[in-house]
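Notes from the pairing session

We agreed to fold both candidates in a single pass and log them together. This is the raw record for the first candidate, unedited. Please don't reformat it; downstream parsing expects exactly this layout.

Candidate A
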Amino acid sequence: MRINSFAKYGVLLEVAECGSISAAAVRLGYTQSAVSRMIAELEAECGFQLIKRSKSGSQLTAEGLMLISPIRNMLNANERLAQTIEQINGRRRDRVRVGMFSSVAVHWAPELIGSFNAEYPDIEVSIFDGLYHEIESKILSGELDCGFITEKTKKDLAFCELSRDRLLAVVPKVHALAERDALPLELIPMVDFIIPGEGSNYDIGTIFEEHGINPRVRYAFCDDHAAVAMVERGMGVTILPELVLSGSAANVITMPLDPPFSRTIGIAHAKQKALSPAAKAFTEFVIAWAEKR
């Protein structure tokens, strides 16, 4: 393999993710003709077509799709090798790719990443903001080094607990439930319920399923704060993690559930893949940071 094949394989991944040669060229800072030439050279080296072009863009062929996972593994291994060599030489030019769901990105990331950058100024932190299942899948595919999730659903992930985040009922100030100290689960089917964003709804849906609760759904949103706004207008009741509600100035009542519930926030990485020096430094920093909170 010629040494510049690594760059060509990286270009192929970008084309696959962007769905077009022109978009990949913009993201990589190459000309469109340079990207096309590298893809053509790579196809010549492989001996078969890797992408097919159409008016709607560029898609991988069946053969190209078969190469994506081993290419990603190869590039990740090459990056870990380069980082280790640099670390041995006393230099840090590392990068860590981290997945975060929205409430962690909003309420933890500014302080956490700022503190990490102060201690490790030569490690670049690249953040992907997504849902739990997206973060898990991207960790296992090698697109992310690690990520914040609430417990784990995939056995191939190593998970370290960082914090327990209470789930709270959010009730209008003028409501039959507003004077209660807690909201019993059995009362939820008796009130109009507002389904919050997809991330929070995952935790709530799990509780409802385990306890046989069928809420009387009035509205459903993809955004937690939109659900809070509807509660504020007296349109129903919702349930959200305490971290989501942190710093909120909404004119609502919050109360614990009865029995109380919480989600477990942790950081995860793939069991079968060794962490790069940068990712190892980041995960260890996160664990120590969470212990001090």
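Candidate B (folded immediately after A)
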Amino acid sequence: MSVPLAEKMRPKRLDDVVGQRDLLEQGKPLRRIIDSGKIPNMIFYGPSGVGKTTVARIIADNTNMIMYRLNGTSASTADIKQVISGAQTLDGYSGVLLYLDEIQYLNKKQQQSLLECIEDGSVTLISSTTENPYFYVYNAIISRSTVFEFKAVEPEDIEPAIRRAFSYLADELGLKLRLESGVCEHIARGCGGDVRKSINTVELCALSADNDGEMLTVTMQAAESLTQRSNMRYDRDGDSHYDILSALHKSIRGSDPDAAIHYAARLIEAGDIVSLSRRLLCIASEDVGLAYPQAVTIVKSCVDSAMQLGLPEARLPLAEAVVLLATAPKSNSAYLAMDAALADLKQHGTADFPRHLQNVHLDGENAKVKGQHYKYPHDFPNHWVAQQYLPDEIKDKTYYSYGENKNEQSAKAYWDKIKDKK
């Protein structure tokens, strides 16, 4: 079986890991924990190919604990139980370390089965995930673990690794190496911070390179072609789609339809129409809001159509929703009002209702005020009458301020006239 080049070159020491200086340099938090020899339960998360698995393996290989390796894509409940039972044997006296890759693929019940053993320390868990653990990992696991975020590796950090990979292959083949100018830089920039993908691209370039029996020549044309293909799926992998969703949201909020369509296209290319649809529904209320309240209904119709159609046709109603939201007038007045009210509740708690707003009930003998005295607005001109609605403690509080858009200003003018505000 042919071993991939990235696996052959996988670092065996922390100092050889590419990137992640904020975690692994001397004196940094994760490096100090590893060097202490006292390994806690840890979760590594970040994009593919940035060193999560490599660091976990290095930690595991340098402990005196019995080690088990499982992958969430294939591990069964029986596999997990076998690890737990191993901690109860004589072999597990020095401790058991479970390295669990792609933990997000375990279901909730499987994750729960680990709780007792990592709680009592009989098993130390090191897990890795490409997905945000706060969304995909059971909360009780997170509360018992230390989470470390691995970032995409910068091109300048990847480039030396690419040069080493080319040299490694040339030596393995017994050939001299000639790289056209810019090859390593292009691969480093084009693989989206994924070291493994960069090394795999090196292997593809070498396999397709000109080979005259003495010299291995890698051209810029080959690098451009193979890097592009290697990079096609990058945004579909791991946690990076949260960055795309953020970029989409901010582009629509900034009323840039071109940028919004670009990021929406990346999600559609990845086949992630569910995340795109949910974010569009959120934007309709959060950022367009009362400036164009019909946007919620239109976007919901577009989303429903997309879900019924499926890809590739789903792109059509979703494109309509994206452009509509990006070009619509914007208002976050309702959003701000709700957040202000929620903040007040957290700070002051829930105050008593005004007497006249309570559900009608019998007055007791000790009631200071008899009767409800509620004024029914529809009995008054313009269906409005002045009365207190907020609790006494915050009766003068203002949460909602009319936005500057035409729709809200029209409503403001109407109510200013009815309420006789000058």
